[in-house]
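Write out the 3D structure for:
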Amino acid sequence: MSQTAYRRCNESVRDEVDVTLRVAEGALPPGLRGALFRNGPGRHEVFGTPYDHPFDGDGLVTRFAFDEGAVRYRNRFVRTREFVEEERAGKMLYRSFGTNLPGGMRRNFLQLRFKNAANTSVMFHAGMLLALWEGGLPHRLDPETLETLGTWDFEGRLRNESGVLDRLMAPELPFSAHPKHDPHTDEIVNFGTLMGRKNQLVTYRVDARGQMRKPHMTPLDALAFVHDFVLTERHMVFYLSAVAFRVASALAGFSTPVGSLTGSDGAPARLLIVPRDGGPTTTLTTRPGFLFHFANGYDEGRDTIVLDGMRMDALPSAEATRSILRGARVPLPWTHPTRFVLDLAARSVSESKLSERTADLPTIDPRCTGRKHHVFYAVSGERGPREPFYHGILRHELGVGDRVRDFGEDLPGEPIFVPARPDAPEPDGWLLTLVYRTASHRTDLYVLRAHDLETVCRLELPHHLPIGFHGTWVPSPHDA
């Protein structure tokens, strides 16, 4: 893919539409009924001022409603307070995770209110649709129209009740973009990392009715960069690399939050194990590395936890990600599917590579969350001149190996697995993925057979979408 094509892929979306998609290839499976919601940056600039990091783009939520052999498509920007104020002002008003305001340190000094981009994922639970961003409150959306209804703090549970100084730095508790739904209990479990006089890991439990328990705080010796975690039947597991935020530098305006990240070369990573039902935490060390995403994890007996995640040797630098956003080819650390086996009795961790391919944005059959899985899916690439872009979808069956669907010069997004039936075996279903078509500067929605990654149906969107992040499938009520 050329630098020009990648820059075009990240052009801002100008239109909010509501249309029925044209079937360009194949036919929709009659059993596929429900809605696919996805989230990601819809624009990478604000009135001509570009963002410097892919995580900063303003959240654009898309809805694909599958019903009676047709797909109705709708897209809407999340109207956060910051988004609305910048639209009114016609310029950038707020700092972001990887972008400071123009004007240097003088303009950014003690600017403590960062923009909530609401751009990373979506969660549907207890009838509520939430747009998520890990640094602040979720935004509640109308599940049909995608109208922004305002921030959602779970009836006050996400208000910071620490001291005055802590509330000044962080008035709200962060609710991460990787909540886990336990299909056996219908409970949502999530986390956030909270800066303050004492840095803390905050964990949340939300019951089937959408009611949140009082959040639980675990002290951290540094404000680690934690994006995802693993939920098992009995545990929550967090990968703490040696990378941490230099909070003072970011607050003073010397750097952005992502630019303040620093690590200790050669320092081991740690795995923090928090019991779901309370009790003392356990910390195990493993070799140095960094990890954005886990596929899944599960308990094996009383003393063993198995985790599958996408491990890299180091976090890409802020400058590297900025250059890639501008369309440059910059070498990045390889990201490999890796199995971690945690032996709690021996207090040891073993690691083994599951695939030679580089891959990320892993997903599984959601019915397997927290229990043993046999297959995961991910966007994937290979070592070669097309890196750092992912041009394929990987299907990895544990103990069997890889199957890859290569999209050539086109760019697929995170694959979402949909079971063929509620009682269907784990591999029986479809994958839904958005694919940016380089030649036509347009995005298509693909329905793939999960077991062999062959096309079942391809639908054409009326415009392109920048590469997004995460999504969720909501089955029709009679199919749930």
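The two ends are 40 Å apart (CA to CA).
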